[in-house]
């Protein structure tokens, strides 16, 4: 016997629909205790020692490949996204929220085409964005693998508000790309205290071979949840 279909179930996180009220919240018991045990909402990011990339206020590359392969991807702490230039040279400028003495930085190669990796560049610092001090120069650098991070250290005791990479040569192609840039002042920073696992309605995947980026899988938004469950000893 065929049962008639009388109800349609659907969910949506579109702008004009009822939004969830529990965003970034943790369910609590009647006594107020969080109903989560051994759950850490901080997503550990494997970065370089003394990382201060989160203090980068703005970043600008002289060439981008919009909408998805743009300069902001260089500091999003996600090596699955990348920045792509249509030139074999590039200038990338970063402004810090406050002056910092950078003594180390790292480049992470992007997902494809080794010939697009930077090979020769000079690193500069400035306090006005116009007069630049040379801090480090590299040549004939090779990234042997994809998503490979290489760290470059140098001596510097001067604090600057602006930093700039002048990439003068890549590994041979007409395009240049990177997945991530990290800056360091060489000082160890303690990890943040544990926080609860969080859920929020986001903009969907940032990189995918089977889905459109920056949209939900069935609409314009996507439900995201993330965190780590810590094993008790």
Automatic annotation (TrEMBL):
Coiled-coil spans in chain: none
Organism: Tigheibacillus halophilus
Sequence segments annotated as region (Disordered): 189-213
Chain ranges of the F5/8 type C domain: 63-181
A Pfam family this chain is assigned to: F5_F8_type_C
Name of the protein in its database record: Discoidin domain-containing protein
Top-level taxon of the source organism: Bacteria
């Amino acid at each position: 016997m065929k049962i008639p279909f009388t109800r349609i179930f659907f969910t949506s996180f579109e702008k004009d629909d009822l939004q969830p009220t529990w965003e970034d919240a943790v369910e609590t018991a009647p006594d107020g205790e969080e109903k989560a045990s051994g759950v850490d909402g901080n997503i550990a990011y494997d970065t370089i020692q003394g990382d201060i990339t989160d203090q980068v206020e703005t970043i600008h590359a002289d060439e981008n490949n919009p909408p998805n392969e743009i300069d902001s991807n260089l500091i999003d702490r996600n090596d699955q996204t990348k920045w792509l230039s249509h030139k074999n040279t590039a200038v990338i400028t970063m402004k810090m929220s406050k002056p910092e003495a950078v003594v180390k930085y790292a480049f992470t190669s992007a997902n494809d085409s080794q010939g697009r990796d930077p090979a020769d560049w000079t690193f500069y610092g400035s306090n006005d964005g116009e007069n630049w001090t040379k801090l480090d120069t590299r040549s004939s650098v090779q990234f042997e693998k994809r998503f490979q991070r290489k760290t470059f250290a140098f001596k510097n005791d001067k604090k600057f508000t602006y930093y700039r990479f002048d990439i003068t040569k890549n590994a041979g192609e007409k395009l240049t790309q990177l997945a991530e840039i990290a800056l360091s002042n060489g000082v160890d920073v303690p990890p943040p205290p544990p926080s609860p696992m969080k859920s929020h309605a986001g903009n969907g995947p940032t990189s995918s071979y089977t889905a459109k980026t920056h949209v939900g899988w069935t609409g314009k938004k996507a439900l995201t949840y993330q965190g780590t469950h810590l094993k008790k000893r």
